[in-house]
Every structure is written in structure tokens, then in C-alpha cells.
Predict the 3D structure of the following.
Amino acid sequence: MSTEAGYEKLTELLPFKIDAENSSDFFYQINRRRNSNTISNLELNRLSKWSVLKLQTALIRTDIAANQLITLPEAYACRLELDINTIQNFEGELDQDKLSDLFYELINLGKEIATKGDIS
């Protein structure tokens, strides 16, 4: 994969096209709130951060007379960072019996973003 290929993959998941040929250092962050299906009047933050990560690995051999630096080929990956949580100023009560369901709702929202992309 290359940076351009990573941008093309992100274009499939984001609501806009990235100019893969003429762009660099792309970073997209958005919070799309959604109402909870588990607890009434509770809004959930769905913060997602999208980018392409370049990995470069280097090894230093010290078992020979002169230290040798060995660099491996570059690798690229699409990166998604998620922060899914309840809003800070919720005034209601979190029912203990529903906390497990809320936890799984948060997990499922993360899975939804990872598979379907940046959707409302």
C-alpha cells in the first residue's frame, strides 16, 4: 500500500473525496452525536479520527564489528481512532440494570463506524 492507496481507501469511508495525488498529511476528525437506544434522553459522542499511517522499521545490528543499520521497506495503513462515550452534561440517571446494554451499544457504534465509515 502507498499513501495514495490509503487515501483512496479512506475516500470509500468518508463523505468526501480525498485528492490522493495532490495531498499529504491528511487528518480528519469529527464528532457526530447520536441519541442512545438504551437510555432515553442520553446523547452519545461518536468521535472519529481518520488518517493514513506510514511505518518505517529499522534494525541496528550490534553483533558485528561495525554496527549496521538495516532498514525494511515502508508499510502503510489506514488508521481510525475512536472515542465513543456519553455526553458530559447528562442530567438523568444511568440505570444500573442498563449499563451493560449501554456498554454494548457503545461497542456497536464503534463497529458501525469502522465498517460503514463516517455516517450520521
Remarks:
- The mean pLDDT is 92.
- The two ends are 29 Å apart (CA to CA).
- The helical segments are 3-13, 99-116.
- The chain has two helices and six strands.
